[in-house]
Design a protein that fits this description.
1 helix; Ribosomal protein S10; ribonucleoprotein; mainly alpha; Ribosomal_uS10; single chain; structural constituent of ribosome
Length: 50
């Protein structure tokens, strides 16, 4: 049981980490772009195609 006031050391601690990878694909074909947009990723993982 966590007390909100009495035991300050008993508070829950959360951590958020961000990892970023950049992959440059020079002269991608239409098939490459389609393949990248169809990738199924786990929850919390995002992909951005520019």
């Amino acid at each position: 049981l966590r007390s909100p006031h009495k035991h300050k050391d008993s508070r829950e601690q959360f951590e958020m980490r961000t990892h970023k990878r950049v992959i440059d694909i020079l002269y991608p074909t239409q098939k490459t772009v389609e393949s990248l947009t169809k990738i199924e990723l786990p929850a919390g993982v995002n992909i951005e195609i520019k």
